Each structure stands twice: as C-alpha cells, then as structure tokens.
Amino acid sequence: MASIDVNQIAKGMKLEIEGYPYEIVDYQHVKPGKGQAFARIKLKNLKTGNVVEKTYKVGEKLELADFEEREMEYIYNDGESYYFMDTKTYEQVGVSETALGEKAKFLKENTTVMVQFYKGEAISVKLPKSIVLQVTDTEPGFKGDTVSNVTKPATLETGAVIQVPMFINPGDYVKVNPETGEYIERVNIK
C-alpha cells in the first residue's frame, strides 16, 4: 500500500487508519511558536459515517486506502441490501441498508450514484447533489400561501418525509438535497 507524508494530505483524500477507510473532511496545518509543526485532521469513517479528529506530527507517514468509486445505477432492494448495477459491465453489487443509513430514503430505481469500494467490497454510496422526487402526500396548499419560511411535512414517492413550503401539493415534483433531506425547489416535469 502506498503511503504519503502528512504535508501531502488534501481534502477528499482516502486514508486507511487502524484497518478502516477514512476520508479527509478538513485539515489544518499548525506551526506553533515552539515545538514541532503538526496537522489536525478531521476524518469521516467511510464504513460507519462517524467523524473523528486526529493529530499527526509533520514527517509522519499515512497509508492511502485501497479505495475505488464506480458509477452505478440503483436497481432494487430486497429488504436487507440495496443492489446497484454497473451500466458498462452489468455487474451487480449489494450494499447493506445499515451502510446506506438515511441515504436509502432518497433512492429511486434507475438513479445513477457513485458506489464506494474498499478493498473490492462495496461499502457505501455517494448520492447526487440533488434528486427530483414526486410528492405523494401532503396537506393541500391554498392560494396566497407564498410565505417562504412556513413549511409543512410532505411524503415523497420513496417514503421519505421532508419539510416543504406551503404551496407544494400532492403530485408536484420537488428537488431535494439527499445529504441533508432539505427541500431545494419545485420542479416542472411535463
């Protein structure tokens, strides 16, 4: 496995620490007035989703993770795992529901995602920045409900429940940020 010096780290880089894959979320190089320089690194565990902060002295070596991302299409779930297909090779892989966590609520069949592999095993999924989904159930809106900061719950076609503005009705399509579960805008689909 390849290793790098602490001075070479960058945001988004994948490292292997204590047998787990981590992604660098943020880092800060610190050069105190006295003593040796160090790097304070915020890391996200790609298997569990936990975020930790670690400190390394300049000159220490870090191991790069055996990590790969492939574009795949979500095809179905069997109650325990979600299955994705590589559209070039037609290879199918499953990712457990626990590994997906809250992201599973926004998965719709035929959605293209980035499946993350660690040592050849599919461990997680990176969803697009926004997903368009249909509202299946919400209280009806009324003419004049245009105040932007008043929201109501709405159930989407995938079963996810998000907060939407009062003017959204059942049957409307909305763009949602799947990372935060926040409403972005209403979308007109003909």
Polypeptide structure, described:
The protein is an all-beta fold and 190 residues long. The chain folds into 3 domains: 3-64, SH3 type barrels; 68-126, Nucleic acid-binding proteins (OB fold (Dihydrolipoamide Acetyltransferase, E2P)); 131-187, Nucleic acid-binding proteins (OB fold (Dihydrolipoamide Acetyltransferase, E2P), Beta Barrel), CATH 2.40.50. Helices cover 2% and strands 53% of the residues. The protein has 1 helix and 16 strands. The strands form 3 sheets. A 6-stranded antiparallel beta sheet has the order 1-6-2-3-4-5, with no helix packed on it. Strand 13 and strand 14 form a beta hairpin. The mean pLDDT is 87. This is Elongation factor P. One of its GO terms (biological process) is peptide biosynthetic process.
